[in-house]
Specification:
With 120 residues, the chain is an alpha+beta fold. Helices cover 39% and strands 15% of the residues. It has five helices and four strands, in the order αβαββαβαα.
């Protein structure tokens, strides 16, 4: 009594396919939520110590709203231009929308337009 294995997938291949499907379907909404929108503040991350955020910001011309102590994470004012593309060209490792990231950044207060509250 043998089983015909010519039409069945190996368990490892099935697991890999399931993981790829879950990752693809799960990461797409996250990527859309964290994509920078024109006119909203953006969060920028550099990976290498020899290329900190200030060099990338200086090359892009965006103003700094918040900067981490080591200079590797910054929140910038995009002010209606495509600052994300400028920052990526200048060497920024990761450029994200700052609104969803605000809770993770100590001392950063998102602008009232992002929080829905009125300025006081």
């Amino acid at each position: 009594m043998t089983r015909d294995t010519s039409t069945t997938l190996p368990p490892l291949r099935v697991a890999a396919l399931a993981c790829a499907l879950v990752a693809g379907c799960g990461l797409a909404p996250v990527a859309l939520a964290l994509a920078p929108r024109p006119g909203e503040p953006i969060a920028v991350l550099t990976l290498f110590p020899d290329a900190p955020i200030p060099k990338a910001v200086a090359a892009s011309g965006a103003s700094i709203l918040w900067l981490s102590t080591g200079g590797h994470v910054a929140v910038l004012d995009a002010s209606g231009r495509d600052a994300a593309a400028d920052l990526r060209r200048a060497g920024a490792f990761l450029v994200l929308a700052a609104g969803p990231m605000g809770a993770c950044l100590p001392g950063y207060r998102p602008p009232p337009i992002l929080t829905g509250s009125s300025p006081s």
